[in-house]
Design brief:
By secondary structure, the protein is mostly helical. The protein is built from three helices and no strands.
């Protein structure tokens, strides 16, 4: 198999993985990283001249890459939202644990005579 065929196969697997509704996002991210690394190893081996079939596969790879990019951005936004939610929960829990921690002492009067 040529490197173009291998890259097409890896790209298809990556797109299928991202399109699958996976509740375990950590394992999905790990699998995506592995496939991206494997595909990254194949990319330097792709050298011209290309046959008609390889050019067709290249166009398909390009279209799949656009879809993969959208899925990765969606996944990234979901992770960022979860991190933001955790920060808010952490801040809220610390306020319940120590409610007087954030009190301001603005406007305190000091008597100079004593």
């Amino acid at each position: 198999m040529t490197p173009v065929h291998d890259c097409h196969k890896m790209t298809k697997r990556l797109l299928d993985l991202l399109e699958a509704a996976n509740e375990d996002r950590d394992s999905q991210i790990q699998d995506v990283e592995e496939l991206l690394d494997q595909r990254g190893d194949i990319l330097p081996n792709i050298q011209p001249p290309f046959t008609e079939e390889e050019q067709k596969l290249g166009r398909e790879i390009h279209l799949m890459n656009q879809e993969i990019e959208q899925h990765l951005q969606k996944l990234s936004r979901a992770v960022k939202e979860d991190l933001q939610e955790v920060k808010v929960k952490k801040k809220t829990m610390s306020k319940y644990a120590n409610p007087y921690e954030a009190l301001q002492t603005d406007g305190v009067f000091y008597d100079k005579r004593n």
